[in-house]
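Budget justification aside, the reviewers requested a transparent look at the raw inputs and outputs of the sequence design task funded under Objective 1. We therefore reproduce one unedited record. The lines immediately below are the structure tokens for a 611-residue chain.
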């Protein structure tokens, strides 16, 4: 919101020509042009949003102040709505027939859309507008229930009509120039989720994700310039079945072009109306020009939280990921791998890091894009056992510019039974000489929870065997996943390669884990350890964790005491995790997370930990 703020020696007594906040001593006032009086707005940011919209409705949409109402009581049956409508724009100055309702909230508030629907249902008004001052604003269309329906259906409009426009005038095809990067993708997805849950039993994440995939394809392939019309849209008056047919065709083309994300026979299962509502909610967003962190975080939250908790899949906070990649400092000619990649956070961050280097070293745009594409296609690899999370990783990387991401859906701990195409990616040689491929860099946050008891899997791991009292090695009946991932990661790290791995803090101090620490020291040099707080992975777990930075030895030690000759280890303790006790991110005024991890990364790099 842009508006004037001026100092004054008295309270305002008339409406200014443009929206202004008056600073009268320590207090702030606005003058409402509809109610013709001044209002104190200290501690009332919602009132500022309302006044901003009153002027916007006049200046942008052409409505006069005398055809607007503020704090209007709305009859609901024989009573009135519990809360008065913030703004009502009427058809004429007589203020008898509402043209549309406006519901405003203070910045960062997300609620209020259901209240807006109450006003529209009670009056039969077809158009509503919701805003907290920050785009995207929600422009809602009420669709009258048909003969066999009890409730109205809802779609989102591109905008509300101006005074001189009809409703049909805001139903013209959307062009690329009208799309906007999304700033709160989670709210958009929640909006779709709530509607779908209320109307049918479809798997919300699966179905919304299909729509997102189709939209990405439309943006990538069909929007060649600012005047290109979008295919991913639904008209306000379009038959929902026709819209579904077009979106299904788009989804089919996306599956064909980007193979491996969805199975060949998968189709959109949403009902016509649920699809129409969800498409209308998504159609104004420009995903390919949106912040990748915003999109990735929304994808992660949409995946069933209980599934993540049960399997120990605690998605790594973005500021932890950035610290790891900053310290690892991947280069354009180096490969990176995550054996438990989840939604691909480490891999996308590595791509971002290398992309910036490529851009800073070159001045030819076509060469920059070609080198970025080559890096993403040839040097970035990830595996995850969960098909849904792997889909997120693939889409996340598509958004970031990689249409051929090497994300595989496999058991990262056991290559037996892998698809042939994945064996080719990760196994070098054949027969008895076959061995796991090795990478220059590994960055991973393996699952903490759960044990592996499969004999087939355990038989592949040194850490699955214990020294018995008779001197013989005995295989354990079960081993914690994170320990096996330590061994798998070191086995797939090239000599001299660099690694960052998130581990439970107990792994570095529990007496029972001495064998793990010895295994690490024999095969790698510990370069740095960063202790994270117990709130870092909330709300999923209270587990205290650390990040271990390792460099694989060129040759395994023959005696553990040789590790005493290693360079000093850099230790750091995070005191500002960037999260509160409930697991919510804490942001500074400039939008950055309030964390000391960036400072820690700078100190580690200054110490020169890599040999």
């Amino acid at each position: 919101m842009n508006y004037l703020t001026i100092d004054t020696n008295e309270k305002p007594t008339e409406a200014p020509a443009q929206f202004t906040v008056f600073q009268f001593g320590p207090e702030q006032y606005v003058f409402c042009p509809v109610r013709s009086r001044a209002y104190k707005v200290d501690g009332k940011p919602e009132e500022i949003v309302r006044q901003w919209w009153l002027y916007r409705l006049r200046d942008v949409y052409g409505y006069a102040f005398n055809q607007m109402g503020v704090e209007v009581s709305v009859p609901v049956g024989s009573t009135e709505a519990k809360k008065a409508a913030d703004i009502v724009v009427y058809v004429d100055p007589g203020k008898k027939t509402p043209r549309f309702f406006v519901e405003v909230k203070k910045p960062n508030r997300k609620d209020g859309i259901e209240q807006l629907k109450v006003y529209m249902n009670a009056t039969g008004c077809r158009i509503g507008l919701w805003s907290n001052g920050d785009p995207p604003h929600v422009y809602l269309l009420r669709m009258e229930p048909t003969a066999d329906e009890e409730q109205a259906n809802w779609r989102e409009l591109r905008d509300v009509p101006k005074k001189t426009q009809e409703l049909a005038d805001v139903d013209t095809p959307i062009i690329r120039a009208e799309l906007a990067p999304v700033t709160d993708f989670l709210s958009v997805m929640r909006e779709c989720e709530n509607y779908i849950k209320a109307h049918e039993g479809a798997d919300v994440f699966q179905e919304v994700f299909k729509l997102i995939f189709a939209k990405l394809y439309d943006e990538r392939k069909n929007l060649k310039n600012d005047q290109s019309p979008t295919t991913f849209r639904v008209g306000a008056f379009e038959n929902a079945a026709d819209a579904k047919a077009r979106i299904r065709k788009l989804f089919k083309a996306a599956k064909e072009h980007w193979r491996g994300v969805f199975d060949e026979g998968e189709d959109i299962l949403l009902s016509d109306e649920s699809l129409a509502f969800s498409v209308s909610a998504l159609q104004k967003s420009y995903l390919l020009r949106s912040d990748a962190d915003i999109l990735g975080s929304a994808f992660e939250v949409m995946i069933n939280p209980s599934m993540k908790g049960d399997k120990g899949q605690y998605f790594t906070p973005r500021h932890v990921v950035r610290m790891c990649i900053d310290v690892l400092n991947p280069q354009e000619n180096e490969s990176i791998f995550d054996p438990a990649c989840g939604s691909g956070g480490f891999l996308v961050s590595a791509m971002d890091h290398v992309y910036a280097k490529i851009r800073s070293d070159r001045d030819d745009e076509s060469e920059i894009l070609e080198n970025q594409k080559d890096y993403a296609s040839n040097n970035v690899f990830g595996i995850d056992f969960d098909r849904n999370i792997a889909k997120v990783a693939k889409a996340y990387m598509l958004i970031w510019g990689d249409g051929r991401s090497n994300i595989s859906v496999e058991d990262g701990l056991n290559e037996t039974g892998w698809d042939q195409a994945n064996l080719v990616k990760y196994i070098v040689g054949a027969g008895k000489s076959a061995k796991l491929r090795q990478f220059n860099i590994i960055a991973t946050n393996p699952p903490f929870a759960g044990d592996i008891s499969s004999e087939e899997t355990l038989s592949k791991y040194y850490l699955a065997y214990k020294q018995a009292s008779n001197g013989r090695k005995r295989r354990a009946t079960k081993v914690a996943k994170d320990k096996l991932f330590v061994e798998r990661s070191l086995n797939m790290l090239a000599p001299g390669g660099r690694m960052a791995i998130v581990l439970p803090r107990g792994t570095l101090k529990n007496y029972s884990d001495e064998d793990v620490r010895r295994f690490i020291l024999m095969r790698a040099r510990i370069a740095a350890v960063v202790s994270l707080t117990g709130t870092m992975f909330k709300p999923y777990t209270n587990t205290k964790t650390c990040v271990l930075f390792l460099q694989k030895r060129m040759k395994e030690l023959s005696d553990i005491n040789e590790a005493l000759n290693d360079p000093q280890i850099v230790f750091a303790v995070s005191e500002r995790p960037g999260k509160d006790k409930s697991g919510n991110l804490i942001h500074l005024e400039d939008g950055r997370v309030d964390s000391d991890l960036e400072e820690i990364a700078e100190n580690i790099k200054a110490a020169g930990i890599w040999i």
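Residues 305-312 have pLDDT under 50 and may be disordered. The chain has three domains: 1-172, 175-290, 292-606. Computational costs for records of this kind are itemized in the attached budget.
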